[in-house]
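Worked Example 4.2. Consider the chain below.
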Amino acid sequence: MNRDRKDNEAETAIRRRMAASRETLLAANRPSPSVLAARKATPSSAGSFIALLVEAPRVTLLLALCISAVVLGPRRTIGVAARSWIAAWLGGTVRNVVRKNL
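Applying the procedure from the previous section yields the following structure tokens:
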């Protein structure tokens, strides 16, 4: 019985030290208000990445090709890209011919 009491006291002391060290660690890792203000003023990288994709459609195309090469494999990606390119080229050519003739 005496041993159980000592074990409980030791466990309680350890838990108190752990709680105190946790509070100290959380306080040390809490960013200062100036850092929080700077983070809010800086645009996120995800937002700038999306803006880059909107402004540069060829980057979007290259990214889509890379992702499809990983997901589908290079052989299927080349086939899909070739068919898409041919369809786009034919569509653009037909559109230009119709514009010139009208």
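The two ends are 102 Å apart (CA to CA). Residues 2-29 form the longest helix (28 residues). Compare this with Example 4.1 before moving on.
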